[in-house]
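Revision sheet: structure tokens.
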Amino acid sequence: MAGLYIHIPFCRRKCGYCDFVSGEDLNGIDRYLSAIEKEAQIRKGLYKRFETVYIGGGTPSILNEKQIEKLFSILNRNFSFPSDAELTFEANPESLTAGKARTLKSLGVNRISLGLQSFDEKNLSYLGRLAREEDFHRAFGFLEKAGFENLSADLIYGLPHSSHKTWREDLKKAAGMGFSHISCYCLELHPHTPLGLKNEKIDEKKQEKMFFSALEFLKKSGYEHYEISNFARKGFRCSHNMNYWLRGDYLGLGISAASCSGSLRTVNEKELGKYFELISKSRPPSSFCEKLSKIQVYREKMMLALRLRDGIEYDGDIFIKFKDKAEKALKDGFLEKTGGKVRIKEKFLFVSNSVISDIIF
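Predicted:
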């Protein structure tokens, strides 16, 4: 299995917490799509077909209908996909129209990831989001009318000023709208972002309480907790992201996009000018390339697998590589064994990075 990721780095306005490569120069979209086509031509011999496609950003829904059609024409001319491929498109409520929803559906997109983050006015203002609650419902209506059934919502918790009550309301409203998938991300303040520069203190105890509140509420609401930050109704796990967590191969197109093939990892140029320059010379636009050692690959496999609630095979070759430290974690109560697999105990999921680090290093 291999996945294809396409990065669309354009936004109407960059959010205060955003650490992704994105910008606000919307005049460059058509030139960028042409560069994506050239990169696709350069890389199309790497894989025969892709089982999943994920178009993220940035704000992919900022593309107009003709640009969306052009993007999918590029993909279909250069790659092949099975009839049941999962095709995900990220959208922000304020830039999604009824016409775009219909266009996406007609092009075979079958999964939409809608950036909500919060329903609360104060939270949205703090995060620098353009959309408000009425925009969420309008966009959701467009998608439902277009025939989409697999809809995912992104939520953010743990904002410095936010309350536990507000977080519970966010969860209730998202579940009540009928999303088949909900991702709950803990706010991180990166130093070079506008919010990070404020030097505000994060209350990790409050964040931890909110995390477990989400677990409790969403499981009671019929969602399966299948990865640390992700919840899905039966049959609606994100296949593209599952491929990441199982450390499958993937190809990334566009600036800053990463690719992984076995032990080889590459990352594209993050500066648009350099990306265009390399593409114009018919060269792969990579700025970073590394060949991982066997132990580095095993570490990644162990780290990613322990994020999944399915866990990792107790008798498998990955677990055996870290058997001594993993057995100690089992004995100390950080891990649990169930059905021949090992996973992090639920009560230690919020500090999973520390648990995993102690095992693999």
